[in-house]
Amino acid sequence: MNLPKVCIIGAGCSGFTTAKRLKDHGIPFDIFEASDDIGGTWYYNNPNGMSACYQSLHIDTSKWRLAFEDYPVPANWPDYPHHSQLLQYFHDYVDHFGLRPHIRFNTRVEKAKRRDSGGWDVTLSTGETKHYDALAVANGHHWAARIPEYPGHFDGAQIHSHQYRTPFEPVDCIGKRVLVVGMGNSAMDIASELSQRPMAEKLFVSTRRGVWIFPKYYRGQPLDKNPAPAWLPKGIKQWLGARMVKGLVGKMSDYGLPEPEIGPFESHGTVSGEFLVRAGSGDINMKPAVERLDGDGVVFTDGSREKVDIIVWATGYDINFPFFDDPAFTADSDNRPPPLFKRIMKPGVPDLFYMGLAQPLPTLVNFAEQQSKLVATYLAGKYAPPSEDEMRRIITADEDYYTGQYYAARRHTIQLDFDHYVRALNKELEKGAKRAAAKGNALPVPSRQMEEA
Ligand SMILES: NC(=O)C1=CN([C@@H]2O[C@H](COP(=O)(O)OP(=O)(O)OC[C@H]3O[C@@H](n4cnc5c(N)ncnc54)[C@H](OP(=O)(O)O)[C@@H]3O)[C@@H](O)[C@H]2O)C=CC1
User: Fold this and answer.
1) For atom 47 of ligand 1, which residue has the closest CA?
2) Which residues have a Cβ under 8 Å from the Cβ of 305 and sit 6 or more positions away?
3) How far apart are CA 264 and CA 271, in angstroms?
4) What was the ipTM of the complex prediction?
5) What is the Å distance from ligand 1's center to 314 Cα?
6) Ligand 1: which of 159, 186, 213, 359 to mutate, judged by most atoms within 8 Å of the beta carbon?
7) What domains, with CATH codes, occur in the chain?
8) What is the pLDDT of residues 384-425, one digit of tens each?
């Protein structure tokens, strides 16, 4: 059968696992990667400017949960591998499955435009425009730094956590008074590192709300290693999890942190084995939200003022698809992507797939590997989605399930429970296989001879 040809944007873990699955099904594809190598955000000092890695970064998901299902992680890995180990694992995967020859490096997708009749014209940084039958978007969502604006001016240095590499780069923090803004996982790691006595002279962390900080271990085992069964009702799962977390860490105010007004599962999980100890040891000084910048200092909402030399904005990322002009395909002003069936397909657009566009707990690393099952079987005519109306109904129900419990924030628009998602996806794949068989396994996306536009 002449299967449709796919353009994959990005050779990070979402892009290359999608490629592997397409290859398994004999679906032709090209991957375009702006950088000189694979890995995306996990490629430290990635010359494409899109890596959020700092030198000391260890992933906060354990090796037990991030492994690709068809390629085991090295047996000698620690529970929480370093970013360099993860990147090596990615290289090994790509080479093992023979994906590298399909990747065009140093080639950025500048524009992706859908034709009225379907199919995509993809314009590359080389100036070429190529036509593809389908488009898989895997450009990541941890690279467009979000920096809030506050009144006043600041005379010191300001960086976003995305730029942070070491205590010395890109700004020398040694002996300085440093303010880290935010309480996500970037803030946890960077504040814990800089608060060590030989590093910053004084380390402040500003947060506009209290959050729960999960430990990394429970009785000597990674906390995420033995999750509750995926079939357990959400309310019970969260009640049990909240009890365990509270039992393990106690009250946040015991460490000098603001007491959360929310439960542990009402914000994206903040995980750290170090932060609470550093705060409890007096090396991290908590401050409320920033009110204004004030020359050589910062004024906070409780009226206090601190002299500050460096601000690290660990304030997260925006979802960004710079190659789409059509707002129907991009995130809105609240950082919400278009409503997507299984977070992959936009109803009514049969030849576009968003890969890894989620904040799955516990991890994003092996998430697109699961999603690619739907994409590959769909393009091969072995899976058929439900009607557009049914897709929309499922999208609404899924979004309520996955994001309903979180407080409204730009960082919470694509939250997702990995285990629940995979269970539901597998059921959907079974149903879709029956629908496809009833339609005679017709190809939903026509394959045209690939042509230069
Ligand atoms: N070791 C690891 O594996 C690491 C993983 N990560 C992952 O990378 C992703 C991004 O994490 P991260 O970079 O921490 O970003 P997040 O979006 O998770 O956190 C951003 C933080 O900044 C705060 N914030 C946002 N806007 C403002 C504002 N205008 N004023 C004050 N505070 C603000 C948020 O507070 P609010 O909730 O109030 O909006 C939140 O506390 C996550 O998925 C995270 O888990 C990150 C670092 C390390």
Assistant:
1) 186
2) 294, 297, 298, 299
3) 11
4) 0.99
5) 6
6) 186
7) 6-144+317-452 (3.50.50.60), 147-313 (3.50.50.60)
8) 999 999 999 999 999 999 999 999 999 999 999 999 999 999
